[in-house]
C-alpha cells in the first residue's frame, strides 16, 4: 500500500485516468491533489481538483453522473493514478459516455462508426428513446416505413453521385447506412452478418470495411476478366449505380419476406456496390469515416441519453 505522502512527493497534482471497470473503456482524465485523493478514499466516488476553477469537485455532484471507484492503482513511477469505476450515466460534460471521442485516426474508422450506429439503434429498440427519438419513430411506424426510407435514401445517393456532388453523396451515404441499421435492428439481424457478406463479395474474410476499400481500389484498373469488381469499373458509373438500385430492391424484398439471411446477404451486396461507387467517384474512405463520425457525434451520448437528434 502506497502512502499518501509518497504519492504526492513529486507533485501537488497527479493525473488520474478513469476507466470503466466492466468495459475497460477510458472515460476521462482528471487531476487530483491530496485532499481530493483522501475524499475519494473516504467516499468511494471520484473527487478531483479543478485547475480552471481552482477548487475541489466531486464528479456527479451537479449532474448525478457519479463515478463509483472500485479500484485504485498507480503506475510504475507513482506519478499517475488509474481509477477503475462503475459510471452512472455519461462521463463527459457533452453527454457522451467518454471524453475521448474526437477521432484522429483509426484503421477501422468506418467499421467502428457503423458498429456504434448499430449499437445505438439496437439500444433504442430495447430502451425507448421517447417521442423525440427519430429511431423510435421509425420502429413505431413499422417495417414498411423503414423500407421506404431505405429505398428513398439509397436512390438519393445515386442521384447525388450522378450530379457530381461529393458532399451531398457523403450525406446520403450516411443516411443509407443509418436507415439500413434501423432495418437490422427492426428485423433482429446483426451487423456482423452483413459485414461478412461484404467480405465474401471482396473474396476476403474478417476484414473491416476500411480495408475492403483497398481491395476494391486495387481492382479498379485490373484487366482480369474473371473479376466482377474490375468488370463494374470497366462498365462505368451508370452500370454501378444500376447495381446499387438492384441490390437495394432485393434487400427490400428479402425484408418483406422476413428472410433474415436474405436481408444480410442483400444488404452486404448493397454496401459492396456503394463502396464500388465511392471508388469510382474518387470518394476517399476517410471522408465517409469522418462524415459518419460527425453524424454519430451530433448531440452527445448516442448509446444511452441521446433522444433529440434526427439520426438517433
Structure commentary:
With 312 residues, the protein is an alpha+beta fold. Helix content is 53%, strand content 12%. The protein has twelve helices and six strands. Strands 2-1-6-5 form a four-stranded mixed sheet. The chain has a two-stranded antiparallel ribbon with strand order 3-4. Helix 3 packs across helix 6, helix 3 packs parallel to helix 12 and helix 5 packs antiparallel against helix 10. The chain is elongated, with a radius of gyration of 24 Å. The C terminus is likely disordered.
Distance between the termini: 46 Å
Q: How large is the radius of gyration?
A: 24 Å
Report helical residue fraction: 40-55%
The count of strands amounts to 6
**How many strands, what sense, and barrel or not for the largest sheet?**
4 strands, mixed
Average residue pLDDT: 91
Order of helices and strands: HEEHEEEEHHHHHHHHHH
- Secondary structural class: alpha+beta
Widest beta sheet: strand line-up: 2-1-6-5
Unreliable residue stretches: 298-312
Number of helices: 12
- Which percent band covers the strand fraction? 5-15%
Q: What gross morphology would you assign? A: elongated
Amino acid at each position: 500500500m502506497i502512502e499518501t505522502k509518497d504519492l504526492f512527493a513529486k507533485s501537488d497534482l497527479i493525473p488520474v485516468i478513469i476507466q470503466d471497470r466492466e468495459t475497460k473503456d477510458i472515460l476521462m482524465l482528471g487531476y487530483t491533489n491530496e485532499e481530493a485523493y483522501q475524499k475519494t478514499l473516504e467516499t468511494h466516488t471520484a473527487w478531483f481538483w479543478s485547475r480552471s476553477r481552482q477548487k475541489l469537485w466531486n464528479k456527479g455532484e451537479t449532474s448525478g453522473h457519479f463515478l463509483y471507484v472500485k479500484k485504485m492503482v498507480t503506475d510504475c513511477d507513482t506519478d499517475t493514478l488509474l481509477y477503475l469505476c462503475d459510471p452512472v450515466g455519461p462521463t463527459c460534460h457533452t453527454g457522451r459516455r467518454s471524453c475521448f471521442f474526437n477521432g484522429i485516426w483509426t484503421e477501422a474508422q468506418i467499421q467502428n462508426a457503423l458498429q456504434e450506429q448499430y449499437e445505438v439503434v439496437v439500444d433504442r429498440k430495447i430502451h425507448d428513446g421517447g417521442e423525440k427519438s427519430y429511431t423510435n419513430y421509425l420502429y413505431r411506424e413499422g417495417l414498411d416505413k423503414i423500407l421506404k426510407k431505405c429505398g428513398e435514401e439509397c436512390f438519393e445517393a445515386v442521384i447525388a453521385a450522378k450530379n457530381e456532388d461529393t458532399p451531398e453523396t457523403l450525406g446520403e451515404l450516411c443516411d443509407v447506412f443509418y436507415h439500413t441499421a434501423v432495418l437490422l435492428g427492426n428485423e433482429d439481424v446483426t451487423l456482423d452478418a452483413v459485414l461478412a457478406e461484404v467480405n465474401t463479395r471482396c473474396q476476403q474474410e474478417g476484414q473491416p470495411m476500411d480495408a475492403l476499400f483497398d481491395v476494391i481500389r486495387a481492382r479498379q484498373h485490373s484487366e482480369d476478366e474473371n473479376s466482377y469488381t474490375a468488370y463494374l469499373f470497366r462498365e462505368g458509373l451508370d452500370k454501378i449505380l444500376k447495381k446499387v438500385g438492384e441490390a437495394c430492391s432485393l434487400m427490400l424484398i428479402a425484408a418483406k419476406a422476413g428472410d433474415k439471411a436474405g436481408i444480410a446477404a442483400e444488404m452486404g451486396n448493397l454496401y459492396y456496390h456503394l463502396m464500388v461507387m465511392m471508388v469510382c467517384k474518387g470518394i476517399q474512405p476517410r471522408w465517409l469515416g469522418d462524415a459518419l463520425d460527425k453524424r454519430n457525434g451530433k448531440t452527445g451520448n448516442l448509446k444511452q441519453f441521446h433522444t433529440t437528434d434526427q439520426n438517433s
